[in-house]
Amino acid sequence: MPRPTYTQEQIFQIYDRINLPAKWRLDVEEAKRKSGGDQALEYLTVLKRYTLANVPFENLELHYSRTQVIDIHPEILFQKIVAQGTGRGGYCMENNAFFATVLRTLGFKIMSTGGRVSAAASPNGDVGDHSMWFGFAHMVNIVTIKGIRYMVDIGFGAGGTVRPLPLEDGKIQLNIKPNNSVRLRYDTLEDFENPESKVWIFEKRVADDKFVPNYCFPDNVEFLPADFQVMNMFPSTSKRVFFTQVVVAVKHILSEDGEEIIGDVVLLGNKLHRRVHGKKEELGAFESEEERVEALEKHLGIRLSDMQRYGILGMSSMIG
User: Fold this and answer.
1) How far apart are CA 141 and CA 88, in angstroms?
2) Which superkingdom heads the taxonomic lineage of this protein's source (predicted)?
C-alpha cells in the first residue's frame, strides 16, 4: 500500500510553518527533481535545520489534554503541527513521522526504522549512565542520496543531530559549535548474546569527554507504519517512562543568518534552561502552572487553549 503524502497546498503551508527561505520553497514537481540531484543533500539539510528550529520536540499531549492520546497518522500530525497554528510539535514518532511524510512528498528516497534509546540519553541534553538499553520506542528516518545513506532525525529533542548524518562507521562530525561532536558506530551491543549481531549506534560527546551512546538502530531494516503504531503505545501510556511523568519541551535555536543551529531551549518539569554554543544558562524554575504555560509560549512559541491547560489538573506532573 502506498505511504501517505501531503498535497501541494499542504507543502506550502509547511514551508510557512518552518519559515523556510524563499530559495527552497519548491513546488512538489520541482522538489522531486531537486531531491535526486547535486543539491539534494543541501536541500535536505536546510529542511531539517528549519524544521528543528520551528517545530518543537514536546510531549504536552500526554499532560495538557483531556485524552492523553497521541495519534501519529500524517493527517492528524499536519493538523496538530501546521494547520491549527499554535506552535505545537510532538515527540519522536510524531515529529519523525511528520517529517518522513514531508520528505516522501518531496521525492526523497526514504525508509523509516526503529531505534532503542540508551539510559544515557537524558531529556535535558546531558549524558549519564549508559549501562542499559530500552526496547524499540524511537523512530529514525534514513534518506539515501546518490547511494549514500543518511540518518535524519528531528525527534530526539536536546542533544540530537542538527544535520543529516551519513552512515559511516566511526566518522566524527561537529554537531553544534564549538565542541559538540557526534558519530555513528556499526557495532554489537554488550547486551547481545550473538557477537555477530550489529547495529548503528549514535553517540555524542562534549569537548574531550568520551563518546556516550544515545540510541541505536538496525542496518537496512524497514519498519512499517503498523510497527510504529505498536511502538507508540509504550512511551505514550507506560508509567515506567518519563514521557508520561514529566512535561518536556525542546526548541532549537537558529543563528541570525539561518545557516546553523547554535543551541536549544529546554523546559523539563518545572525548570527552564538555554544552551547556546555549549554554554548552559539556567532561566529559572516555575512555582505554578501559570508560570510554566507562560514560559511555553514565551520561550518555545507554544500556545495552549484553556481546555488544554485544564487537562493537567490532578495529574502528578502538575505544578502545585
Assistant:
1) 21
2) Eukaryota
